[in-house]
């Protein structure tokens, strides 16, 4: 009999938990009685989130972690095992962005994008998998992007990092199914978070009327986890629409993107 994934008392590790999708996801799992390990670079922001969760009776620990560092990723997983004795769900959510011409991006920015969006998922997954295999159960949920499926101008590095994450998730899904481990990929379109404010470039904000909320993404994660949807899931009309347009005509998708970028740049200059 196919069983749903029970979130009550499940040990859930969330990276990039200090804001946006990560924070909303932490709150959503906490509301369902999960035990949480919250990871992000900012210890101060993690502490504020833990205090808010604790006021609701949730059980949460925080681990200041830069997922680009393999040693720190392993330490985060070790803290989860030490505190709770297991890891049931790993949410690879930590991510950063930089848009604009590739020749304008510094080597430091390149390393930060690839290190966070792609290597971060790999390091955390590599550290958690042995424990999930030993348990015979677990979930790895990768928060990717519609830009992991479609390639648009001015986003070369971000697309590369997210498509790499997507390919890693797809391949891993086939490898670990027999171990009882689910691999789920979440592909949001524009999300109303501080993502663009925190980008590593100074380009115009992207988003607008097609944005979905971080809470919407979090609820999608919860449903996909509960139903054990071993596949990639689009979130939001922006993601669904862009994926459909790109599938029919990449040229039209590129044209629409350039028009949107020009409009956003114009608004930024006003």
In short:
This protein is 50% helix and 16% strand. It is of the alpha/beta class.
What is the radius of gyration? 18 Å
- Biggest sheet: strands side by side, in what order? 3-2-1-4-5-6-9
Q: What is the domain total for the residues? A: 1
Write the CATH fold name: Rossmann fold
Derived structural class:
alpha/beta
Overall CATH architecture: 3-Layer(aba) Sandwich
The 3D shape can be described as globular
Helix segment tally: 8
Q: Can you tell me about this structure?
A:
With 270 residues, this protein is an alpha/beta fold. The protein has one domain (11-269): Rossmann fold, CATH 3.40.50.720. The protein has helices at residues 20-31, 43-55, 70-84, 107-135, 156-176, 214-227, 237-248, 250-269, and strands at 11-15, 35-40, 59-64, 89-92, 138-143, 181-188, 191-192, 212-213, 232-235. α1 packs across α6 (214-227) and α3 runs parallel beside α4 (107-135). The model is unreliable at 195-207 (pLDDT under 50).
Write the layout of secondary structure elements.
Blueprint: E1 11-15, H1 20-31, E2 35-40, H2 43-55, E3 59-64, H3 70-84, E4 89-92, H4 107-135, E5 138-143, H5 156-176, E6 181-188, E7 191-192, E8 212-213, H6 214-227, E9 232-235, H7 237-248, H8 250-269
Parallel strand pairs: 1-2, 1-4, 2-3, 4-5, 5-6, 6-9, 7-8
Helix pairs in contact: 1-6, 3-4, 4-5, 7-8
């Amino acid at each position: 009999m196919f069983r749903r994934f029970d979130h009550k008392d499940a040990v859930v590790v969330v990276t990039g938990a200090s804001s946006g999708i990560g924070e909303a996801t932490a709150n959503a799992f906490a509301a369902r009685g999960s035990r949480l390990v919250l990871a992000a670079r900012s210890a101060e922001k993690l502490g504020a989130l833990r205090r808010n969760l604790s006021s609701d009776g949730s059980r949460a620990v925080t681990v200041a972690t830069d997922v680009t560092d393999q040693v720190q990723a392993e330490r985060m997983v070790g803290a989860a095992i030490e505190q709770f004795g297991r890891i049931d769900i790993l949410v690879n959510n930590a991510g950063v962005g930089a848009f604009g011409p590739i020749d304008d991006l510094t080597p430091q920015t390149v390393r930060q994008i690839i290190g966070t969006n792609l290597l971060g998922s790999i390091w955390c997954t590599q550290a958690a998998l042995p424990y999930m295999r030993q348990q015979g159960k677990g979930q790895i949920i990768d928060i990717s992007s519609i830009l992991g499926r479609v390639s648009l101008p001015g986003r070369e590095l971000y697309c590369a990092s997210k498509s790499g994450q997507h390919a890693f998730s797809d391949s891993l899904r086939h490898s670990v199914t027999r171990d009882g481990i689910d691999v789920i990929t979440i592909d949001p379109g524009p999300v109303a978070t501080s993502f663009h404010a925190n980008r590593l470039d100074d380009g115009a904000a992207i988003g607008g009327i097609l944005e979905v909320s971080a809470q919407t993404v979090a609820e999608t994660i919860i449903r996909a986890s509960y139903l054990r949807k071993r596949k990639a899931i689009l979130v939001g009309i922006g993601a669904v629409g862009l994926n459909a347009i790109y599938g029919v005509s990449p040229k039209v998708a590129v044209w629409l993107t350039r028009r949107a970028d020009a409009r956003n740049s114009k608004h930024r200059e006003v």
